[in-house]
Write a structure and sequence with these properties.
The complex is a heterodimer of chains A (about 160) and B (about 800).
Chain A: E1 2-8, E2 11-17, H1 23-30, E3 49-52, E4 55-58, E5 71-73, H2 87-94, H3 104-117, H4 123-129, H5 141-151, H6 156-160
Parallel strand pairs in A: 1-5
Antiparallel strand pairs in A: 1-2, 3-4, 3-5
Helix pairs in contact in A: 2-5
Chain B: H1 22-27, E1 42-48, E2 54-60, H2 62-65, E3 70-75, H3 76-79, E4 108-109, E5 115-121, H4 124-131, E6 135-140, H5 147-156, E7 169-176, H6 177-180, H7 186-196, E8 198-209, E9 218-222, E10 228-232, H8 237-248, E11 255-258, H9 274-286, E12 290-293, H10 296-302, E13 306-317, E14 323-335, H11 344-349, E15 362-370, H12 384-402, H13 406-413, E16 422-423, E17 429-430, H14 435-446, H15 448-460, E18 465-475, H16 483-488, E19 497-503, E20 509-513, H17 522-534, E21 541-544, H18 562-589, E22 596-599, E23 602-605, E24 611-613, H19 614-623, E25 637-641, E26 650-660, E27 666-676, H20 683-702, E28 734-738, H21 755-772, H22 786-795
Parallel strand pairs in B: 1-12, 10-11, 14-15, 20-21, 27-28
Antiparallel strand pairs in B: 1-5, 2-4, 2-6, 3-5, 7-15, 8-13, 9-10, 9-12, 13-14, 16-17, 18-26, 19-20, 19-25, 22-23, 23-24, 26-27
Helix pairs in contact in B: 12-13, 12-21, 17-18, 18-19, 20-21
The chains are: A alpha+beta (about 160), B alpha+beta (about 800).
């Protein structure tokens, strides 16, 4: 067991963890942060995407011990303390960028990172930027619209239509 | 028909309401089954066979039992009859050959991935560690792997998937229009065409696909209450409860099944799975809550697959292009067991090969074959994508033979809008449709003529990148299903749906539906329906589903049935509420029942300003102080609706691809579709269903295939090798609708959940083939990978089979290091 200290969604936490424990397991099993989910075993699907020290990571691809001393933000910590949704969360709802919602936490966290790096991405840049996050429901059409909407590069009406 | 449907002011139906479901899903406040943790809960790991067919000669569990925090290690023999059985609900013929299917077999495994032992431990990681320590001795048996070989094995001494059955042929199911009295003799039509017309003969492969829902399957069973509670990532909580009760002997009333948030299904979660049954059995045996959550590799390996057919097709036509007959001969791979719908999947396609065309003669036969591979069952479209692919490819081949535009040949043969309702050669009555209008609109959106001109120009200058235009004018049968029809097809259950509307004292409304959403947005769309019907605010309606204790009756969600069957049940339940409220309103308003009008949520006395809201009546009924004599104090109502017919959405899909003839790379250029799905409840949700459906169908055309090697090992057993499309692979789509309301439900709606998937696959492959016709190519097998396209261009043929398509992960010379 290894002692780790980190901040998750603004809360300081400390635990003894097995060295092999993945960050996603730590979040889900130790902290009950079940908003972050597991979709594959091979870091292909991105459903488990969170932010570690401000950058998106696939939390199935990071050991909990690697997050020691770090700051993690999950989908549960993205909205403001008053419940005010993050603009990317709002955009996914506005543009119907989710159906079953299983990929959504990862999609949203990746989108936040993508827009931080490139605030006005082209459609191609959006599609390439989300290449590591799989969705089986939406065909990506409305996810792309949601990212454009959050970036302010398309209107809500256009985003919501076919 | 109107080109667009605008909602009337103040109504909910037709509005692009944002979804009620989303607030939780975008903030991570979710209830996936794997999120559930109960006091003392134990975790399962499965020990799975690496061989496709083998006798189990010994299972050594002692080392695993000694592993830290392991509570039990159990085999099929240990669980015995308590494990129940996996059922097939649709024996398609009375003498169907159906192997017994124990969730955990005792003496023989029939596919690679089948569970032979289960480890129970205090944590999932410890269970998995210990599963590695279980030693199983196998005696390998010859495995039936290739579909064509397996179909003939009883004649030529080939491998039999279940040796005691003596054959791999589970069933031969046939429909013939001459025998059924719905049309002529197909052999005569083909003979005539051989003499004086055109005969198109083709063999197409429907490759094996994996539904690949994003949420891996998970089941939690808590046996500590009076009832055994089962949470499962399932599309079918009601059917699962029935199947558990029917096969374990536990009374149905002692089982509660909950489908909490479910992360996609696409048919892949309409199964009663071995894993669910094993989890149930272990929980009962140990008296403790237990959880099993599969890994993605387990999901790809053991959750049912879809498609997997060989299609031999003969189309007869006159020299001027009028179709005269269609003969379909399928081989369908069921995998190792006959799944819950199982052999019914190809049968669901039997009525759809004739599609929108007026064939005078038709014959369909499917031979359902058992193999030693993962079982197959419904995957988005279930039988109808296969049928649509075949006919839409053939219509393009006919057009090529005639030298005509593929849309022109279709129009020559399709049912004209004034001919509805139309009884087809397969015996179905299509209630409504307008193929002319949908096609005209799709062509306009697509810029059909301009793209044809560009194609001609590229061909003329022998551009290395050729443009292909693909057409698919599909229809499908959905809204499963009229119970009498299901009965006539030997299906084991009905096709009705149930709904209940509860009027609460505070003016809120609870709607209970037997449909079980897993991403479709029922909570939003059903709220819109009830809001309009009862005149109560959208926000005041709560839709409850997916829990057999709340929704006690239902047949769940698949086959594009939730709206057209479940929605109609809801309409009828709401109407009963109004009728039950009417005499109470009359009593309270001191008016005659005949003088009351109900609109906008209010009973009004004609010709006066007197009136009362239905929510006020609900409050008065709750108090029950002043009701008419003899009336029960309730206006809550329920309804069970059994449809009289299937439901027939249709549409015209047009796809343009660019094919690099030097590399074989196919690039999507544009895609336009005009779907006629009748009246639309929520255009936003409909668009989402179409987009997602399109990509799943396009993925079959271009990327996805479940591939087995010669040893019966699934080599596409992870998302590294099974190519789910990404955002970077796909494009944005151009959608519109024409509207021919269905005549068989009050709202005039048609199913949309499967439409995109059914339509898009042939549109894409037709486009690829269209691009390559100048190179002498008349088929490219799916998925149309660059390699296969390149081979088709350079050596003719359709590009060959996929054999071990997966890239090796390790240098073979270093293989020993693994």
């Amino acid at each position: 067991m290894t002692r780790i200290n980190l901040t998750v969604d603004g809360q300081r936490v400390a635990d003894d963890v097995e060295p092999r424990m993945l960050l996603v397991q730590y979040l889900r099993e130790k902290l009950g942060k079940t908003g972050t989910v597991v979709g594959c075993d091979t870091s292909n699907c991105g459903a488990c995407t969170v932010h570690l020290d401000g950058r998106s990571v696939k939390s199935c691809n990071v050991l909990a011990v690697q997050a020691d001393g770090g700051e993690v933000t999950t989908i549960e910590g993205l909205a403001g303390e008053d419940g005010q949704l993050h603009p990317v969360q709002e955009a996914f709802r506005e543009c119907h960028g989710l159906q079953c919602g299983y990929c959504t936490p990862g999609m949203i966290m990746q989108t936040v990172d993508l827009l931080a790096e490139n605030p006005s991405p082209s459609e191609e840049a959006i599609r390439l930027g989300l290449e590591g996050n799989l969705c089986r429901c939406t065909g990506y059409h409305n996810i792309v619209r949601a990212v454009q909407h959050a970036a302010g590069t398309t209107g809500a009406a256009e985003g919501a239509s076919a | 028909m109107t080109a667009t449907q605008e909602p009337a002011a103040g109504t909910e139906i037709g509005r692009d309401r944002r979804r009620k479901e989303d607030q939780r899903l975008i903030t991570g406040r979710t209830r996936w089954t794997d999120n559930i943790t109960l006091p003392g809960m134990l975790h399962l790991a499965m020990v799975r066979s690496p061989f496709p067919h083998a006798r189990i000669t010994g299972i050594e569990t002692e080392a695993a039992k000694q592993s830290p925090n392991v509570v039990a290690v159990l085999t099929g023999a240990d669980l015995g009859e308590a494990q129940g059985a996996c059922i097939n609900a649709w024996p398609v013929v009375p003498d169907q050959v159906t192997p017994a299917h124990l969730p955990m077999p005792v003496d023989r495994v029939a596919f690679a991935g089948e569970t032979v032992a289960v480890v129970v431990a205090r944590s999932a990681a410890e269970a998995r560690d210990a599963a590695e320590l279980v030693e199983v001795d196998y005696e390998e048996l010859p495995a039936a792997l290739d579909l064509k070989d397996a179909a003939a094995a009883h004649e030529n001494g080939g491998a039999i998937a279940h040796p005691d059955l003596g054959t791999n042929v589970s069933a031969v199911w046939r429909f013939d229009s001459a025998e059924a009295g719905t049309g002529g003799d197909v052999e005569a039509a083909i003979a005539e065409a051989r003499e004086n017309g055109i005969v198109i003969e083709r063999e197409y492969r429907q490759q094996r696909l994996i539904p690949a829902f994003m949420e891996p399957r998970s089941t939690v069973v808590d046996p500590t209450g009076e009832q055994i509670t089962v949470w499962s990532a399932t599309q079918v909580p009601h059917i699962l409860r029935f199947a558990i009760a029917a096969t374990t002997g536990v009374p149905e009333s002692k089982i509660r099944v909950i489908a909490p948030d479910v992360g996609g299904g696409f048919g892949g979660k309409l199964q009663q799975t071995p894993e669910e049954m094993i989890t149930f059995a272990v929980a009962r045996r140990l008296g403790k809550p237990v959880k099993f959550t599969e890994t993605r590799s387990e999901s790809l390996l053991t959750a049912h697959h879809g498609r997997d057919q060989w299609q031999r097709l003969t189309l007869a036509a006159t020299k001027d292009g009028h179709v005269t007959g269609l003969k379909v001969d399928l081989l369908a791979d069921l995998g190792a067991y006959v799944a819950i719908v199982g052999g019914g999947v190809p049968v669901l396609g039997a009525f759809m090969f004739n599609a929108i065309y007026k064939f005078p003669a038709y014959q369909f036969q499917t031979t359902n074959v058992l193999t030693n591979k993962t079982w197959t069952d419904a995957y988005r479209g279930a039988g109808r994508p296969e049928a649509t692919f075949a006919i839409e490819r053939l219509m393009d081949e006919l057009a090529a033979e005639l030298g005509k535009d593929p849309l022109e040949v279709r129009e020559l043969n399709w049912i004209k809008h004034e001919e509805f309702p139309f009884t087809t050669v397969a015996g179905l009555e299509y209630d409504s449709g307008n193929y002319e209008a949908a096609t005209a609109r799709a062509k306009e959106m697509f810029g059909y003529d301009a793209l044809r001109a560009e194609q001609a120009e590229r061909r003329a200058r022998k551009d290395k990148v050729q443009l292909g235009i693909g057409v698919s004018t599909f229809t499908e049968m959905c809204g499963l299903a009229p119970s009498r029809v299901l009965g006539s097809l030997n299906y084991g259950a009905g096709g009705w749906e149930h709904a209940e509307v509860r009027m609460l004292a505070t003016g809120k409304v609870e709607v209970v539906t037997g449909a079980s959403a897993h991403g479709q947005g029922h909570e939003t769309a059903f709220s819109q329906i009830v809001a309009d019907r009862l005149g109560v605010p959208f926000e005041d309606i709560e839709v409850l589903h997916g829990d057999t204790q709340i929704s006690h009756k239902g047949l769940d969600t698949y086959g594009s049935r939730s709206l057209v069957v479940g929605g109609e049940a809801l309409v009828r339940a709401a109407d009963k509420v109004i009728e039950k409220a009417r005499p109470i309103a009359a009593h309270l308003l001191e008016a005659s029942v005949d003088d009351l009008e109900f609109s906008g949520g209010r009973f009004a006395v004609k010709g006066t300003d007197q009136g009362m809201a239905i929510t006020e009546i609900a409050t008065a009924v709750f108090a029950a102080h002043n009701l008419p004599d003899g009336l029960e104090p309730s206006i809550d109502s329920e309804a069970t609706f059994d449809p009289v017919n299937f439901n027939y959405p249709h549409g015209t899909h047009l796809c343009a691809v660019e094919v690099d003839t030097e590399t074989g790379q196919v690039k999507l250029r544009s895609y336009a579709c005009c779907d006629d799905i009748g009246n639309v409840i929520n255009p936003l949700i409909v668009a989402g269903q179409v987009h997602g459906g399109l990509v799943q169908g396009i993925a079959q055309a271009l990327w996805e295939e479940a591939v087995y090697d010669d040893n019966g090992t699934l080599v596409t057993g992870s998302f590294v090798d099974y190519l789910l499309p990404t955002a970077a692979d796909t494009i944005s789509f151009d959608l519109d609708h024409t509207t021919s309301p269905a005549t068989t439900n009050s709202l005039g709606t048609k199913g949309v959940g499967e439409a995109g998937t059914i339509a898009s696959t042939p549109a894409v492959v037709n486009a690829v083939v269209d691009a390559l016709r100048p190179y002498g190519v008349h088929d490219v097998a799916m998925p149309c990978t660059p390699e296969r396209v390149w081979r088709a261009i350079n050596s003719g043929g359709s590009g060959g089979e996929t054999t071990e398509a997966a890239a090796p992960h390790f240098d073979e010379s270093e293989g020993a290091a693994q």
